[in-house]
Each structure stands twice: as structure tokens, then as C-alpha cells.
């Protein structure tokens, strides 16, 4: 790559009791490490974490605290030459067990939930590039897809955290290295500037106009909003360095070169499936 951007990853928990703080701090560190691993494998970043910072700066007490002021965290990141800062707060984490009897045999089933907020900040401008919330509930059936049968709490926790880190890392890549429009041909096929493992055939993407920059009244940090959605496309072909999408709806005249394209949310995808089924019934 021509330029390897540095990302500083810092996480914290929102628990109050000492027992919960200890558990959440361990969870925060595990989530950090999984996220660092995912971002490193993308081969687009140099990733700096708390341990690296502590060795380099000697500011052990500051970095061990979960109450680090945003201003101090920004200063540390800038001093280390980081381009971006990823910060987050874990607000809910739980794993529940329940016994179920089937044909005289008692089995233990798990349910789990993980919720955390996170932000991506460009240190040069102190602009919040993206903020999001990971909020997932894993019932027994969903967990069976992640872990083997009769897995313990630790295996469930590890799988849930790995799942969360993969999802958030993919979203961070979409923010820092957003997928953009290269061109559009006369057949309403839209060419995007990324392919490979980041885009899959059948995925739905939305295309947006440039948004405005606003200031968060709570933090004083600038953040850029997406503009109006102008089109929706479905990926029909993926190559190593680009992909091709078919225009599903929207105004082709509003699709311009370098426009931002983001994966559609679950609601949009589900709505499209419903519309497709309805059209088939009419036919």
C-alpha cells in the first residue's frame, strides 16, 4: 500500500461496581485484542493499543484508567502519529443459562447479549468520522452456529466477542476506506472501487450525496453526516480490485464519480426481498 495509516484502539467499560469493573475491563481488553487482530489482518493499518502506548510513553497510570479524558486520549494519539482513534464503551454484557429437558435428558442452553458504543475520530481534524452501536442478542439457535454443542460460558463469550470484532472492523474499514463509485455505464451498471473479500455478490449497497459537517454539542467534536440516499444497487460481479452493481432503484443522474457507497441495513434488504416476492406473485 502507498500509505499505511495508524489507528489507536482504546476501549473502556461503563460498569460501576468493583466486581463488574474487573470483569468488564477484562472483556474490554479481549474485545480490543480481537479488534486489533481484525484490523491488522486487513493490512491497511499500523494498529496501536494500550499496551504499546504504555511502553512508549511510560504513562502507565493514565492508560490503565477507564476515566481517561477525551482531550488526553487525543493528545496521546497525536503524539504517537496516529491518524485515527477508535474509542468505545461497553454498556451491556451477559450470558444466561437455562436447562431444558428433552426425552428425559436435561441439556443446558445459553443465551447471550453484548452492547457497546464506539466512535472513529480523525485526529488531524478531531472530526468524528463515524459513531455506531453494536447491539446483538444471541439465542441458543444462533449460538449453535458460532460454538459447538455443550460449550461453556468461556467459549460462548470468546465466540461472541470474535463475532463483534469482525463486524465492527468491517464497518471501520467501510468508514476509513469507504467504497466509492468509479463510474456508471449506459446499462445502469455501477462500478465500485473495491472488490476482493470486502464485497460479495448479492450484497445491497446504498449510494449517498455528500453530507454536511456538524458539531456534537456534548463533545465539541466535528462529525460529517451522510447526505441524501440517491440510489440502491445490488452487486452482480466481484473482481479483485473492483465490483459491479446493478441499479435497483434511484436516480442514475444523481450517481456521480467518487460518491460514497455503504452496505444497506437489514431493514432495507428485508424490504427489497418482500418487494421481490410481491412482484413474483403478480407475475
TrEMBL record:
One of its GO terms (cellular component) is outer membrane-bounded periplasmic space. Keywords: Cell membrane, Lipoprotein, Membrane, Palmitate, Signal. Pfam families: CsgG. Coiled coil: none annotated. The keyword Signal applies. This is Curli production assembly/transport component CsgG.
